[in-house]
Please model this.
Amino acid sequence: MTDDPWHTERLDLDAYLTRIGVPARPPARAALDELHEAHVRTFTFDNIDVLLDQHPGIDLDAVQDKFVRRGRGGYCFEHATLLAAALDRLGYHVERRLGRVGDPTAPRTHCVLVIHDLNDTPLLADPGFGLSLLRPLPLTDGATDDDHAGLAYQLRQVPIGDGHGWALHRWRDGDWELMHTHDELPVHPTDLQIGHHYTSTHPTSHFRHGLMLTRHGDGQHTAITHSTITVRRPGQPTEHRDIDTAELRDLLRHPAVPLTDDEEQRLLDRIAELRAASRP
Model:
């Protein structure tokens, strides 16, 4: 038996490290950066299973079966669950935290990780956001990193209730745009389960109303919706354009999203419904 409520002993660490192509290394900042970047480059951020009404859940067994065995991706609760388990098994002191995306009154439906005791400053890991950090940021007010495949990020300490939290911004169009804000309240497995249930099933959840598929590629970040593609490359103008169904099918295969034939067809059928609903 274990006292760990996250059951990280269930992770097949060797299989995970093989999937992302990184060896096991002792805890260190360079090793953490390597692991974080390999994770976000290997696994897509996407809501495909939400759109297909077949989400397997976010417990570690389900996530590692989906990510490690099948090579699929998912959203923040899954990414954070998997990366936190790997970090724990590798000897890091990792804490899960919940946050709100954009609007500070939005539900607490984003999960980030904070790594303690690696150096004098805790580090923020954010593997499961559409525009994910490539590597952790120091959790200090004003910490900035402008070398994330052409994207720049900044952390700010902000008041939350009687305490404080942390707001992550990215540089966009000459100003800092708020991405999400997280607090420092303790997080338990049930908190993630409730957030996942809301995100994946509530009729007002934006994850139910459009495709979101992103990945850090070689020299670019690609974001695909059910009707558009956006490609960001360092030092170049952002490419943004509409796509049709045939191109979307090709794009689903190009990022190597390993869908079954049935899943791909059901997803394209669902996307056809979304497109029809959005027409005037």
About this structure: The domain at 8-210 is CATH 3.30.2140.20 (Arylamine N-acetyltransferase fold). The mean pLDDT is 93. The two ends are 58 Å apart (CA to CA).
